[in-house]
Amino acid sequence: MVFYKEKTLNEMTKEEWELLCDQCGRCCLIKLEDEDTGEFLYSDVRCVLLCEKSSQCKDYDRRKEIVPDCIKLTPQNIGEIKWIPNTCAYLKLAKGKDLSYWHPLVAGDTQKMKDAGVSISQRYTLSSSDITDEEYIEHIVEWPNLEPEEE
To answer: Which domain holds residue 92?
Structure first.
């Protein structure tokens, strides 16, 4: 049974929901919102809790306590959050699309995701603790919202 093809996001168990995360780390990059247009700009600055090597949260269970503006993705809010990267499995399924060829549930491990350049572990990023608010504009990048070409 391929649960993500047979269940809606709302029908998934907590464990299935967590398995959908491709663990790329893109949603944990700091985004800036243009106040005039409402457009979100991605940066190469990662949350202080995001490990640059594993693309995993260093304290997932306590992340909201440590980083109060951390947003927990749920089946209810996934379609409403405007800054979710186009590569996100949750967003793809919410839009009725299939998972990408590189997604760990499709590929069997995370290597294809890394080879495709989706994981932040394959990119230059810096911690939000190493930057001032004024410096964010210098770290705007496009790659977090780009999906690699199909194989």
So the answer is: 8-142
